[in-house]
Amino acid sequence: MGLMSPMDSMFLLMESREHPMHVGGLSLFSAPERDPGGAARRLYEDLTAGGDELSATFRRRPGRLLAGFSALQWDTDDDVDIDYHVRLLSLPAPGRVRELLELVSMLHGALLDRHRPLWEAYVIDGLADGRIALYVKTHHALMDGISTVRTWQRALASEADDRGCVPPWYRVRRPAPGPPSLLTRSLELGRTARRIGASVPQAVTGAYELARDYPQPRPFQAPDTMFNVPITGARRFAAQSWPLERLRAVATRTGATLNDVVLAMCAGALRAYLTAADALPDEPLIAMVPVSLRAAGESTTEAGNSVGAALCDLATDSADPAERLARIRAAMTRAKAGMAKLTSLQMLGVSAVNVAGLALPALPIPLPRSAPPFNIVISNVPGAEEPRYWNGLRLEAVYPASIPLDGQAVNITTVSSGGAMHFGIVGCRRTVPRLQQLLTGLDQALLDLENTTV
Questions:
Q1: How far apart are CA 285 and CA 221, in angstroms?
Q2: Of 27, 84, 55, 57, nearest in space to 143 by CA
Q3: Among all residues, which ones are annotated catalytic?
Q4: Residue 177: pLDDT above 70?
Q5: CA distance 274 to 362
Q6: What percent of the chain has pLDDT over 70?
Q7: Angle between helix 321-340 and helix 182-213 axes, rounded to 10 deg
Q8: 3-state secondary structure the chain
Q9: Which residues face 122 on adjacent strands?
Q10: How crowded is residue 111: how many other Cβ atoms within 10 Å of its Cβ?
Q11: What digits encode the pLDDT tens for the residues 410-447?
């Protein structure tokens, strides 16, 4: 068994039926025109017939503690049932994207089985246009979102004729280490305790320096919105893509980053959605924007979590798209400048303050109601620029599906891949009605940014 990091443990402790804590992704592949038949079956066979030895990451499951599951240490499954983890499904007629998104919505709301390694994959056939869908979900305690995307990108090929693709769970073919000795576990506990002890003063110093340099926006000062309420376990998933060249043209003309443009699109969509619901607050919405804390050169395919958090003013109180983008750009510039002065441990401490509100609903005691720590989580994960293939199938789109929580009823995550920005929106089915209206809002927000003069 191996010890979990504190952040990995947090994702397991926060999970309940109303709060599944896995991240997912919906990929769409096009089959070669000369050989479209049976592509879904071949993809399924590729994913289940890669070999006998699974990588250590994809054999991890929570250890047992007394009559339940531990949130402190990992166990290793030495007899993984691959046919349970990888399944072949078919959409009902007429096989529209609408039916696909409904299926993914249902799959994304279901908990992963803690008796087994915390991942599942579904090959989905039956789309009327002949494309093949692949939905994969992985528990956030097992791997963070950036690692999940990069792991799959590395499994794909850059050439259409390459037939050597191997699923990520078969990529590492080495014997699993035996159980650590009592001495080894004691030493590991000692090292963990020393790291935590060393991180506390650095985190406190980092929090002070960050607050001194730019105090706004701060956690727990966001306005109340219809998104910041308790949620149920049922999910709704919406997805759409926009050409990267359109977003880059706006970024180049305005001096903003690509991520700034993504945030401005989200801000415009959220403003329009809340206005239509007669629920737009006077104060601007605040977004939590995850940032990678991995050092330069550190692998992004490692298991576990290494992410921090910055807060961003979305300027939804302004009707001017140019002003919204300018304020978003300024907020993210301040956040990056402040974090650049900190060590990874200090950034982790500051980020822990920013995300503390996410864990509050999981506590077994009632707490007095306060302002939400922020209104929404918006993530942007970079992918591969050039086309990617899976044994002849071309990857056309990859739509991320992240985690809504109590007080955070909707989540927006994007992946840039293959010349497009792919948006995946997940919301509580009861709390966020007509979720697809956010897609319309994103499209209009991009048009507004393109038509805006600087």
A1: 10
A2: 57
A3: 140
A4: no
A5: 27
A6: 78
A7: 130
A8: CEECCHHHHHHHHCCECCECCEEEEEEEEECCCCCCCCHHHHHHHHHHCCCCCCCCHHHEEEEEECCEEEEEEEEECCCCCHHHHEEEEECCCCCCHHHHHHHHHHHHCCCCCCCCCCEEEEEEECCCCCCEEEEEEEECCCECHHHHHHHHHHHCECCCCCCCCCCHHHCCCCCCCCCCCHHHHHHHHHHHHHHHHHHHHHHHHHHHHHHHHCCCCCCCCCCCCCCCCCCCCCEEEEEEEEEHHHHHHHHHHHCCCHHHHHHHHHHHHHHHHHHHCCCCCCCCCEEEEEEECCCCCCCCCCCECCEEEEEEECCCCCCCHHHHHHHHHHHHHHHHHHHHCCCHHHHHHHHHHHHHHHHHHHCCCCCCCCCCCCCEEEEEEECCCCCCEECCEEEEEEEEECCCECCECEEEEEEEECCEEEEEEEEECCCCCCCCHHHHHHHHHHHHHHCCCC
A9: 87, 135
A10: 15
A11: 999 999 999 999 999 999 999 999 999 999 999 999 99
Residue with tokens 């899976």: 390
**Does residue 160 register a pLDDT over 60?**
yes
Q: Is residue 360 over pLDDT 90?
A: no
Whether the pLDDT of residue 294 is over 60: the answer is no
CA 217 centroid distance within chain: 23
- Average pLDDT of the residues of the chain: 84
Neighbour-count burial for 60-73, b at 16+ CB within 10 Å, e otherwise:
bbbbeeeeeebbee
Q: Residue 243 corresponds to which tokens in the numbers above?
A: 């050409």
How would residue 339 be classed by pLDDT, with cut points 50, 70 and 90? confident
Close Cβ partners of 56 (under 8 Å, ≥ 6 residues apart): 76, 172, 176, 177, 303
Six token digits for residue 204: 């406190």
Tokens of 410: 């909707």
- Spatial contact of 30 and 396, defined as CB atoms under 8 Å apart: yes
Q: In which band, very low, low, confident or very high, does the pLDDT at 172 lie, cut at 50, 70 and 90?
A: very low
Cα–Cα distance measured from residue 449 to residue 253, given in angstroms and rounded to the nearest whole number: 10
**Rounded-to-integer distance, Cα 53 and Cα 76, Å:** 13
What per-residue confidence (pLDDT) applies to 27? 97
Segment 37-88, tens digit of pLDDT: 689 999 999 999 866 588 999 999 999 887 788 888 999 999 999 999 999 9
- pLDDT tens-digit readout, 1-14: 678 888 788 889 88
Q: Which pLDDT score is estimated for 302? A: 53
Tokens of 122: 């579904």
* Cβ atoms 85, 11 nearer than 8 A: no
Strands 68-76 and 2-3: antiparallel
